[in-house]
Design goal:
Number of domains: 1
Largest sheet: 4 strands, antiparallel
Structural class: alpha+beta
Strand order of the largest sheet: 2-3-1-4
Number of strands: 4
Oligomer: single chain
Shape: globular
Low-confidence stretches: none
Strand content: 15-25%
Helix content: 25-40%
Radius of gyration: 16 Å
Distance between the termini: 48 Å
Order of helices and strands: EHHEEHE
Mean pLDDT: 86
Length: 126
Amino acid sequence: MKIWNGYGSEHSMNLVMVGHFKTEEDANKTKEIIEKLSVELSGKIDIGTNRENFGSEILEILKKADCYILSPGELEHFLYDIHIRVEGEKIILETDETDVSAFFKLMINKGAKVEVYSAHHYPDEQ
């Protein structure tokens, strides 16, 4: 019998990302882009697959979304389990993932001031 001891990083991050936009319209438009990319990329890419470039179908999706700031490896972020809502001029994105650079870059590119924190450590912030 072999006993394996090890450590893993599979745990609940309980990460919250808040994008503060100048207008509610900007927040809603950015949320729509995130939701659209999540739907359109589903079935076209796989989580954990190393990609060095975009295929023509993916490039067309990004072009339609007017999104030119993402790397090929960040596309899988849109397939993660996220919860996103708009409250006034804010987008609030919650996830258990640590890789959130795609959302960060998208929000910054669309004019947001962004804060990121763990709801484990700051449960009253939401």
